[in-house]
Amino acid sequence: MYLFENYSRLPVSFVKGEGPYLYDDKGKRYLDFISGIGVTVLGHSHPALTKAICDQAQKLIHVSNLYENPWQEELAQKLVSHFGSEGKVFFCNSGAEANETAIKLVRKYFRMKGEDRYRIIVLENAFHGRTYGSLSATPRKAFHEGFGPMLDGFDVAQPNTSSVESKITNETAAVMLEVIQGEGGVKVMDPSFLADLGQLLKERGILLIVDEVQTGVGRTGRFFASHHWSLDPDVITLAKGLGGGVPIGCVIAKEEIAKAMVPGSHGSTFGGNALACKAGLVVIEEVEKLLDRVREIGDYFKERLREISAGEVRGMGLMVGVETGRECGELVFKALENGLLINCTQKTVLRFLPPLIIGKDHVDECIDVLKRIL
Ligand SMILES: Cc1ncc(COP(=O)(O)O)c(C=O)c1O
């Protein structure tokens, strides 16, 4: 009654969670195969995460970025160790903010070098967030409607090398992409496109920003999904799973690029506070142990989905989509009635983003419900 009506919410209120299960206010149990849209990677009430949050809250939650922040340093070091290049990290609170920062960063980097490159090539069907920069980088008419004008400086290409090449001008600063388009219907980029693109961008001195807000933090069975293709991103953005439910996002950039953000150039009041960073540290420690298992369970899940579905089953690790060929909102509702939480994207694609802790038994439980409702 008192809320903006921008969300179409399902008629259920959850009051507690444990592992991959949620419980509503009537005590009914649900298998959570959407994880708050790819956020609660360790499931609910994970003992180590809960303890770290409680311990930190008893000491200190927030001091701002006016002061030294050892929690950020520790978490940044961990993230850079996965990045594969010398890098630096900026912390914020969400995926849109991380992408906003990445857009500002690449513009600033080229201006610092005295080059007037500011344009960013994005891919058709991409989703990068809802703030003006990230929304302008999201080429979806429906999301722009009524909010124009968008930020200038984005060129839209199809996900193939010749299309990207045709959009390159002397003003192109970067290409920004998701290696698996999540909101776009769990669409995995063609490996040969990614290999050629990496080469092309290096030749032209254009930066590569990989938006790993949905694919990062172990979701696909590697810490960063770009590692499946040996991509060498200049900038990676993360959020969602990083705090396991505590809001935190970040941008990881190669050192030389990160240096463009000089004191006073950019900031965030909440970004990387002690509580969020502590959560991030536990999440990374736990996710590192789960990566092999995510790939194994993900393969099993896809195999089982193929047994029951005629439509294409796509994705990697525990980021999985099924093309149903029909409007699937009703299926999501039926799944809910049957105690299973899933999601529909691009109208016809059922999307599954379960917590990374699930086992084959949870997959079987999900398949049993799907069999019943499909
Ligand atoms: C790839 C990608 N980028 C950015 C975002 C925006 O993240 P947030 O909702 O945290 O702003 C999302 C959210 O779904 C996403 O999937």
Description:
The protein has 374 residues and is α/β, with parallel strands linked by helices. It has a domain at 49-284: Aspartate Aminotransferase, domain 2. 38% of the residues lie in helices and 19% in strands. The chain is built from twelve helices and 17 strands. The strands form four sheets. It has a seven-stranded mixed beta sheet, with helices on both faces. Strands 1-2-3-15 form a four-stranded mixed beta sheet. β13 (313-316) and β14 form a beta hairpin. The radius of gyration is 20 Å and the shape is globular. The protein starts with 13 loop residues before the first strand and ends with a helix. Residues 37, 94-96, 99, 127-129, 178, 182-183, 211, 213-214, 239 line the site of pyridoxal-5'-phosphate. Pyridoxal-5'-phosphate binds next to α4.
Structural features:
374 residues; alpha/beta; Aspartate Aminotransferase, domain 2; seven-stranded mixed β-sheet; four-stranded mixed β-sheet; 12 helices; 38% helix; binds pyridoxal-5'-phosphate
Summarize the structure.
This protein is α/β, with parallel strands linked by helices and about 375 residues long. The chain has 12 helices and 17 strands. The protein has a domain at about 50-285: Type I PLP-dependent aspartate aminotransferase-like (Major domain) (Aspartate Aminotransferase, domain 2, 3-Layer(aba) Sandwich).
**Strand arrangement across the biggest beta sheet:** 4-12-11-10-7-5-6
Mean pLDDT: 97
CATH architecture of the domain at 49-284: 3-Layer(aba) Sandwich
C-alpha Rg (nearest Å): 20 Å
Order of helices and strands: EEEHHHEHEHHEHEEEHEEEHHEEHEEEH
Name the helicity range. Answer: 25-40%
**Count of helical stretches:** 12
Q: Bound small molecules, which ones?
A: pyridoxal-5'-phosphate
Strand content: 15-25%
Record field, number of beta strands: 17
Largest sheet: 7 strands, mixed
Low-confidence stretches: none
CATH class of the domain at 49-284: Alpha Beta
Question: Pairing-aware structural class of the strands and helices?
Answer: alpha/beta
CATH topology of the domain at 49-284: Aspartate Aminotransferase, domain 2
